[in-house]
Design brief:
Elements: H1 2-18, E1 26-29, E2 36-38, E3 50-51, E4 57-63, E5 66-73, E6 78-84, E7 87-88, E8 93-95, E9 98-105, E10 113-120, E11 128-136, E12 139-141, E13 150-155, H2 157-160, H3 179-186, E14 190-195, H4 209-212, E15 233-237, H5 240-243, H6 251-270, E16 275-282, H7 293-300, E17 304-310, H8 320-336, E18 378-379, E19 385-388, E20 397-401, E21 406-412, E22 425-435, E23 439-449, E24 457-467, E25 471-479, E26 485-494, E27 497-506
Parallel strand pairs: 13-14, 13-15, 15-16, 16-17
Antiparallel strand pairs: 1-11, 2-4, 3-11, 4-10, 4-12, 5-9, 5-11, 6-7, 6-8, 6-10, 18-21, 19-20, 20-27, 21-26, 22-25, 22-27, 23-24, 23-26
Helix pairs in contact: 3-8
Length: about 500
């Protein structure tokens, strides 16, 4: 028996020694060609490149069961967006300062090709150092070719995505669901993003577009620096912060000169071939830059255009639903330029802008994303419910308002004309409403703003007695001359009410 046992042991040992081993761990240095970087990375230390600007990414493709990254935030912690196989992790991940290894994905199918992208989600001026990747049970493979279309963005807090995940102008900024990254994905392009809160077009500090052109990071301006990016389109979203720093008597001409300086800096750096889009909002200030973007375009000529979106934000900055609306309008404009851009995909988040004079998400079917409950209708107090029910008037969702609860949505009273209402414009608001208590009192109405921000007035409301059956109710409201935004209001004056299928028509 012993010889047989010995032969078995020797044979087993031989077979184990000759069998191919499964690679349990594979490290990849930061300078490996399998890794793709986007954004203004500094590669002075090839195995430890760093980046400052938000929206910058690291991507890799692989087969394996899990992947980790070794990262280092130099100054402070920050949020990062991990995207596995095109699906963004939600919410974004808070990573503390210092060097650490972070698991990006685990329990993956090792026989399937995967991609992972790591995006610097916000911008508190902290530099991110990337030290490499470690793969479990697999191999790295080549990514698809880089996109042939490229867009560079320069701007202020709107472009930065300040308060992206708050309907109340609170919290930090974000990038993945902000309009620059959304537009870039919609058009199948590559993005470089240089934006910061309170930025101007030009001066008085280095927090301006002119400085950003040659800034490797926010606080590292160098006239000799050039990022090497070759965009077909450059989007500039700035100017709102310039007007507050200029005396009224010289405001228009001074801000126009700031535009000239910014465009000159961009053309010096990138040449005359890229098309520059002056992208701004209208309907918030009598001296707003959007009013004279067209003058700059006509004056300077060349590959230059202007595009506008309505100022329908609530408290200085838009949330991710508002950014989605902006993204749809900007993507449409870029496609119209005839540069070969085309829509590759739709919006990631419900569109915050209605068409023409209409409301957005009138049947409440759309919402934002997991961990953020915005759906395009703002509420005055927490607690408003958007719920799915089996017998909605339209679709599957309604909103439920208890006594004294209300929601509102801003619509562009200009209908996209970038001129205020004239001759007493009227709107008809229609809603399907029912009471869960058997009876109640619903209110449909609106108030209005002129060009000066935060002066909602001329409240116009109509009350309706409602019962337990779905029924359409309509109210006509009158916008005073000079109205830029109409705020449609839904309110319960009495009882627990459900609202659905909201429509607005200009009469």
């Amino acid at each position: 028996m012993r010889p047989t046992l010995l032969f078995t042991l020797i044979t087993s040992s031989f077979l184990l020694a000759c069998a191919p081993e499964r690679n349990t761990s594979l490290a990849l240095d930061a300078d490996d060609p399998h890794i793709r970087f986007t954004g203004r990375w500094n590669f002075d230390e090839p195995k430890a490149p760093w980046v400052g600007w938000q929206g910058s990414t690291v991507s890799v493709a692989f087969r394996g069961s899990g992947i980790s990254a070794t990262l280092e935030f130099v100054e402070e912690g920050e949020t990062l967006r991990v995207v596995v196989d095109g699906i963004p992790e939600e919410p974004a991940r808070l990573v503390p300062g210092g060097k650490q290894t972070v698991v990006l994905a685990a329990e993956l199918d090792p026989d399937v090709e995967h991609t992972v992208t790591l995006m610097k989600e916000e911008f508190p001026t902290s530099r991110l150092i990337f030290h490499g990747l470690e793969l479990a049970d697999g191999e790295f493979i080549d990514l698809p070719p880089r996109p042939r279309k490229r867009i560079a963005f320069f701007g202020d807090s709107n472009m930065e995505g300040y308060s992206l995940y708050s309907e109340k102008n609170a919290g930090g900024n974000g990038t993945w669901f902000a309009y620059p990254a959304t537009v870039t994905r919609m058009l199948g392009a590559e993005m470089y993003l240089q934006a910061a809160g309170s930025a101007t077009l030009d001066g008085p500090s280095a927090n301006d577009v002119v400085s950003f052109v040659h800034s490797e990071a926010y606080d590292r301006e160098d006239p000799e620096y050039h990022d090497g990016f070759e965009p077909q389109v450059i989007v500039v979203n700035a100017g709102a912060n310039d007007i507050s720093r200029v005396p009224p008597e010289s405001r228009k001409e001074t801000v126009k000169q700031h535009y000239r300086n910014a465009i000159e800096a961009l053309r010096d750096a990138y040449g005359d071939k890229p098309h520059i889009v002056l992208w701004n909002s209208y309907g918030w200030d009598p001296d707003e830059p959007a009013l004279y973007n067209a003058e700059i375009v006509e004056e300077l000529g060349g590959n230059l255009s202007e595009a506008d979106f309505p100022w329908c934000w609530e408290q200085w900055h838009g949330d991710m639903v508002d950014h989605s609306g902006q993204a749809g309008l900007l993507a449409e404009h870029i496609v119209s330029l005839g540069l070969g851009f085309s829509l590759q995909r739709g919006l990631d988040v419900v569109d915050g802008y209605g068409e023409g004079y209409g409301v957005a998400n009138g049947s409440f079917e759309g919402s934002a994303r997991d961990g953020y409950e915005g759906f395009g209708w703002r509420y005055h107090a927490d607690g408003v419910e958007r719920i799915a029910i089996g017998d909605a008037a339209d679709g599957d969702y309604v909103i439920r308002l208890e006594t004294d609860e209300r929601v509102h949505q801003c619509i562009d009273a200009t209908g996209g004309s970038v001129t205020p209402t004239r001759d007493t414009q009227q709107f008809r608001i229609t809603a399907a409403v029912r009471s869960r208590d058997g009876s109640g009192t619903a209110v449909l109405g609106a108030d209005f703003t002129a060009q000066n921000l935060y002066q909602r007035e001329h409240l116009d409301e109509t009350e309706f007695l409602v019962d337990e059956q779905w029924q359409d109710y309509s109210a006509t409201v009158t916008a005073p001359d000079g109205t830029w935004q109409t705020y449609v209001i839904l309110r319960s004056a009495n009882g627990e009410l459900e609202f659905d299928n909201i429509r607005v028509d200009a009469l």
